Amino acid sequence: MNKYFDVKDKVYDIVQKYPETLDVFSANGFEQLQNEAMRKTIGKTIDLVMACSMKKMNLELFESKLVDIIKQTRESEDVFLNQTERNEEAETTVLGVLPCPVRIPLMESFKEWMEANKDISLDYELKAANTGVEWIRDSIKNATEENITDLFMSAGFDLFFDEELMGKFKKRDIFEDMSGFERLNKDFDNEQISLKDPAGQYSVISVVPAVFLVNTDELNGRRMPLSWEELLSPEFEKSISLPLNDFDLFNALLLSIYKEFGEDGIRRLGRAHMRSMTPAEMVKSNRKSESGIPTVTVMPYLFAKMVREESPLKAVWPKEGAVISPIFLLAKKSSRERIQPLVDFFMSKEVGQMLATNGKFPSTHPEVVNNLNEDQKFMWLGWDYINNHSDLGALIKKLMDIFYEESGGK
C-alpha cells in the first residue's frame, strides 16, 4: 500500500491525479490511454489490479514504477527545490528546468553543495521539466546584456537559439563554455559526432535520446521498423505516436528529420502521426491500426527501458541514431569568477553519472560510463547546421505548421 493511490483505483483516476504516470502506462502496453477519449472509456472501467492482470504484469513491480515516477515529480517541492522567496539582493542568479526522473537526487546533491558553499550569494529557481519553460522565456525577453541571468540550464533548441530569445545574446558572444573539458565523453566526441561547441559558448551536460517502442501485436504483417527512413514509409501512416507534449524532444525531432529528409520528411512524419481521435472518428478512419493503439511510439530512451522482456513492446534504437535533445548549460562570461563553482557542480562526474544512470540521459563528462554499445549512435544537428540557421525558432514554427497541415492536427 502506497500513500498516493490504491491498487483498486481506476486507471483513469490515477492518471488524472498524477499525469506523469501516463508515459509509464503507455510504455507498458497501454498506449491507447494517450488518447483522451480512450482514457475516459477504458480507464474508467478497469482498476490497476485488472490492468496488470490483462497485461500479465507483476502488480507490485508496476505499482513501484508508478510510485517512483510520482515521487520524482512531486516530492521535491520543498525548500531545497524552489526558494519560497527569491533573493533579489543575491549576486548570482540561476534559472533552469531539471529532468523529472533525476530531479530529487540532483536537488539533494545541490542542497549539499549549497550548504558547503554558504559564502556564495545565490538566487536560484530550478523547476521540473514538465512545468515548461515559458517562465524562462519571459525572463529572457525582458533581459538586457547587463542583467541577464548568470547561469541557465535546460533542454530546448527554440529557447536557446531563437533570435527573439537567447539567439540575440549568442550573437553578442556573452556566454562561455566553462566546463574545462578538452574532449567530451567518447560517446559524443568521435568520428560521427561532436557535441563540443567549437565557438566555446555553449556547454552540453547530457542528452535526451528518442527511440522507438514497437508494439509487435499491431504490426499486422509489416516488418518492424528499424530506422527513421522505414518509420516514415507509407505503410506506417497514421500508426505512430509522437511526443507532441514534450516540446523540447518534439522540436529536436522536427529539426533532425528536416535535416535528414527535408520538407518531404516532415510531411511524411505528419502523415505517420496517429492523432488523438474520438471513438466516432476512429470508426470512420482508414488508419492501419483499427484497435486505436499506435504501432510505434517515439519516446525517451528512459521509458522504453522500462518495458518488461516478455511484453509485445520492443524497444528499437534507430539505425541512423536516436534523435537527441541536448541539455544545455549557458554561463555568462562576465560572471565567470562568481559562477565557476556552480558550473563545476553541474558539469561534475557525479551529476553526469546520476543523469546517465537514473535517467538514461547519457552524459558528456569524459569519465562517465554511459553503458552504450557501438550501435547506439545519435542523430545530432551539428554545430555547423545550427550556426548556418541563424533563427532555429522561426524554422521550428515553419516545420510545425507543415507537420500539422499533414497530420490534420492543430
Feature tags:
410 residues; alpha/beta; nine-stranded mixed beta sheet; 9 strands
Describe the protein's architecture and organization:
The protein is α/β, with parallel strands linked by helices and 410 residues long. The chain is built from 17 helices and nine strands. Strands 1, 2, 3, 4, 5, 6, 7, 8 and 9 form a nine-stranded mixed β-sheet that branches. The model is unreliable at 77-84 and 276-288 (pLDDT under 50).
Summarize the structure.
Helices cover 38% and strands 13% of the residues.
Secondary structure: elements and pairs:
Blueprint: H1 11-17, H2 22-27, H3 36-41, H4 48-54, H5 59-74, E1 92-98, H6 103-116, E2 122-128, H7 134-141, E3 151-155, H8 157-161, H9 167-171, E4 203-215, H10 228-231, E5 240-241, H11 247-272, H12 279-284, E6 296-300, H13 301-304, E7 313-316, E8 322-331, H14 336-346, H15 349-358, E9 378-379, H16 383-388, H17 392-407
Parallel strand pairs: 1-2, 1-3, 5-6, 8-9
Antiparallel strand pairs: 3-8, 4-6, 4-7, 4-8
Helix pairs in contact: 11-17
Beta content: 5-15%
Radius of gyration equals 22 Å
Distance between the termini: 41 Å
Mean pLDDT: 87
